[in-house]
C-alpha cells in the first residue's frame, strides 16, 4: 500500500528522489507530490560552505611552516545526484587535495618566497581542487591562503633580524641628520666669520676716514701740523679708554694723576713716535 504525500523543499536545498532505492529525479524548491513509501526524498544543501585546511610542510630552507587555506564551495543544483551518491566525506577529500597541492609547492620555495607567492599558491589550489571535485557536482568558488605560520623559534629569529635591520637604518638616518646639522653649522659659522670680517674692515675704514677728516679739519681751523693733531687725538682716546674702564666697575686701575699728568702722557706718546722714527731709518739698511 502506498500514499500520496507532499514533500516541501527549502529554497536553499534540492531534493533527491529515490524510487525503491534507485535515483529518480531532482526536486526543485517548493511543494511536490511523492508516492510514499515507494518514493523517498532527501535534501541536499546548495549553500556556499567554507572549510579551513591546515597543512604542515617544510620550505626549501628547512623551515617548518603551517599553511591555513580556506576553501569556499557549493553543490551544483543540477548535479546534486553526483554529490549525493558519489561522495561520502567531501571535507576530507577536499582537505587531501589541498594538502597535496600545498606540499608540492612550498618545498620549492624559501620562507620569504612563500610569503610572496601566497596569491599564486591560492590560484593553484583553487584550480586543482575545482578540477578534482567537478565530477562530484562541487563548484569551488574561492581558495584563500589566510595564514602562514612558521615555527615560533623561527618567528622570533625573524623578528630579531627585522629589529636589527630597522635599528641599523635608524642609526644611518640619525648619522645623516647629524652630518647635515654639522655641515649647516659650519656653513653658518663660515658665513658669520665672513660677515664679521667685512664688518671689521668697514669699521677700520670708517675710523681711518674719520681720523683723516679730523686731521684735515684741525689743520685748516687751528693751523696744527698732522703730527700734533695725532698726538692730541691719541691723548684724547687714552683718556676716553680710562673713562670707560672706570665706568665699567669690573676692576680697579691706579693711574698717576697730578697737574702735569696730561702733559706727561702727551710727552710719552710723543717720545714713542720719535723713537719709532729714529729706529725706522736703521731698519732700512
TrEMBL record:
<dbReference type="InterPro" id="IPR036013">
    <property type="entry name" value="Band_7/SPFH_dom_sf"/>
</dbReference>
<feature type="domain" description="Band 7">
    <location>
        <begin position="4"/>
        <end position="162"/>
    </location>
</feature>
<protein>
    <recommendedName>
        <fullName>Band 7 domain-containing protein</fullName>
    </recommendedName>
</protein>
<dbReference type="Pfam" id="PF01145">
    <property type="entry name" value="Band_7"/>
</dbReference>
<dbReference type="InterPro" id="IPR001107">
    <property type="entry name" value="Band_7"/>
</dbReference>
<dbReference type="InterPro" id="IPR050710">
    <property type="entry name" value="Band7/mec-2_domain"/>
</dbReference>
Amino acid at each position: 500500500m502506498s500514499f500520496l504525500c507532499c514533500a516541501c523543499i527549502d529554497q536553499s536545498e534540492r531534493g533527491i528522489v529515490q524510487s525503491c532505492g534507485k535515483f529518480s529525479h531532482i526536486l526543485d524548491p517548493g511543494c511536490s507530490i511523492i508516492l510514499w513509501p515507494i518514493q523517498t526524498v532527501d535534501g541536499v544543501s546548495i549553500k556556499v560552505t567554507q572549510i579551513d585546511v591546515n597543512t604542515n610542510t617544510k620550505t626549501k630552507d628547512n623551515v617548518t611552516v603551517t599553511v591555513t587555506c580556506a576553501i569556499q564551495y557549493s553543490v551544483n543544483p543540477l548535479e546534486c545526484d553526483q554529490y549525493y551518491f558519489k561522495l561520502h566525506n567531501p571535507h576530507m577529500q577536499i582537505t587531501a587535495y589541498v594538502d597535496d597541492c600545498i606540499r608540492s609547492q612550498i618545498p620549492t620555495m624559501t620562507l620569504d618566497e612563500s610569503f610572496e607567492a601566497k596569491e599564486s599558491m591560492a590560484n593553484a589550489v583553487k584550480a586543482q581542487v575545482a578540477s578534482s571535485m567537478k565530477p562530484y557536482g562541487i563548484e569551488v568558488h574561492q581558495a584563500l591562503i589566510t595564514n602562514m605560520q612558521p615555527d615560533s623559534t623561527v618567528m622570533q629569529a625573524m623578528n630579531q633580524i627585522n629589529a636589527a635591520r630597522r635599528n641599523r637604518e635608524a642609526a644611518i638616518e640619525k648619522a645623516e641628520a647629524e652630518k647635515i646639522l654639522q655641515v649647516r653649522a659650519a656653513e653658518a659659522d663660515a658665513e658669520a666669520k665672513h660677515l664679521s670680517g667685512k664688518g671689521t674692515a668697514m669699521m677700520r675704514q670708517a675710523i681711518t676716514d674719520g681720523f683723516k677728516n679730523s686731521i684735515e679739519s684741525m689743520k685748516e681751523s687751528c693751523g696744527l701740523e698732522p703730527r700734533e693733531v695725532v698726538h692730541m687725538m691719541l691723548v684724547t682716546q687714552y683718556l676716553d679708554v680710562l673713562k670707560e674702564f672706570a665706568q665699567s666697575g669690573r676692576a680697579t686701575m691706579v693711574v698717576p694723576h697730578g697737574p702735569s699728568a696730561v702733559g706727561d702722557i702727551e710727552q710719552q706718546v710723543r717720545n714713542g713716535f720719535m723713537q719709532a722714527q729714529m729706529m725706522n731709518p736703521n731698519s732700512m739698511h
